[in-house]
UniProtKB/TrEMBL annotation:
SMART domains in alphabetical order: RWD
Membrane-spanning ranges: none
SUPFAM superfamilies given in the database record: UBC-like (SSF54495)
Protein's UniProt name: RWD domain-containing protein
Highest rank taxon of the organism: Eukaryota
InterPro entries the UniProt entry points to: Phi-like, Prp3_C, RWD_dom, RWDD2A-B_C, UBQ-conjugating_enzyme/RWD
Domain RWD span(s) in chain numbering: 14-177
PROSITE patterns named in the record: RWD
Length: 335
């Protein structure tokens, strides 16, 4: 074991102790693997030879929103809102411009931010991986929040611990992002549609057997509200579809540090102004279990029935990816 690796892991354990002292209540710091800290200690003591998994966890932060303010917002006439009307003159002609007032914040209200953290083995000499998420933020403000956080962490020198600093930055700066997502100014009779990228990713793995991995894949898929499937066995195939940032976060999250034989074989993207529901080929994210061939011994070395898988793809109008995934041309059932 190299001294640099040992030093990094020791520093990570030290920072985790600090975090648990800062957030002592149950559920505030949730480890993805509850045994990871024990395994790292055993590795440092020399009683474990294999490199332990990365430390991955979520910290739940309660952020107090800024003091309530009153904002004037422009609307078109004929609105169903309860409004005050003011007489105005436009282009030398009398007209009515309608305004309404929103009390944007409750002075005592709090919002929740879940900070997802992954410590690479060489952290703090390698960049920390963080992602902040809140159900109270729209997609644009959440993206800006994470860009601001990443930019701030870029000011740290290699070797500096920065999770605690990231938490302090969120506590000091996140309120403005919640403010911006509630400011309303709508001068036209209809809001301009927002374009989003709908993405579908086809992921190939040498195999997917482990129960904890299968559980994590399903949990992450449902948490991010993506649709698709995970075919377990050998090979393992994952299809995930939804808004681009959700799919990319799914891809980033499921890749274990020791999951080497996995790759994204194919992607399909479409610009949409709606929710993307009409673009989905699947209606939920579920595990796909097919018949298998081969040895059911201790090695679990068996292959999934690719014929059944092809029929499944045809049912969901996706048979075109069969050749991409396996390099085998699918034969039409009509021939």
């Amino acid at each position: 074991m190299s001294a640099s690796m040992k030093e990094c892991l020791q520093l990570q354990l030290l920072e985790m102790e600090m975090l648990f002292s800062m957030f002592p209540n149950q559920g505030e710091v949730k480890l993805e693997d509850v045994n990871v800290l024990t395994n790292i200690k055993r590795y440092l003591e020399g009683t474990r030879e294999a490199l332990p998994p990365k430390i991955e966890f979520v910290i739940t932060l309660q952020i107090e929103e800024p003091k309530g303010t009153r904002h004037m917002c422009l609307a078109h006439s004929g609105s169903n809102y309860s409004v005050d009307q003011y007489h105005a003159v436009a282009n030398d002609k009398p007209a009515y411009v309608t305004f309404w007032f929103l009390n944007l914040f409750d002075f005592h209200s709090k919002v929740q931010i879940d900070l997802q953290v992954t410590m690479p083995h060489s952290y703090p000499y390698a960049a920390l991986q963080l992602f902040g998420r809140s159900s109270e933020l729209d997609r644009q403000q959440q993206l800006l929040l994470n860009k601001g956080l990443t930019s701030y962490l870029g000011t740290f020198d290699p070797g500096e611990l920065c999770v605690c600093a990231a938490i302090q930055w969120l506590q000091d700066n996140s309120a403005s992002y919640f403010l911006n997502r509630k400011l309303v100014y709508e001068p036209s009779t209809q809001a301009k549609p927002v374009k989003n990228t709908f993405l579908r990713m086809w992921i190939y793995s040498h195999h997917i057997y482990q129960q904890d991995l299968r559980k994590k894949i399903l949990e992450v898929g449902k948490r991010l509200e993506v649709t698709g499937f995970c075919m377990t066995g050998k090979p393992g195939i994952i299809c995930v579809e939804g808004f681009k940032d959700h799919c990319e976060e799914f891809w980033h999250t499921i890749r274990y540090p020791n999951w080497k034989h996995i790759s994204c074989k194919h992607t399909e993207s479409t610009e949409t102004e709606g929710s993307g529901e009409d673009l989905r080929l699947f209606h939920s994210f579920e595990e796909l279990l097919l018949e298998a061939h081969g040895d059911y011994g201790l090695r679990n070395d068996y292959h999934m029935n690719l014929g059944q898988f092809l029929e499944f793809l045809k049912k969901h109008k996706s048979e075109h990816v069969f050749q991409i995934l396996f390099g085998i041309e699918s034969k039409s059932s009509d021939s």
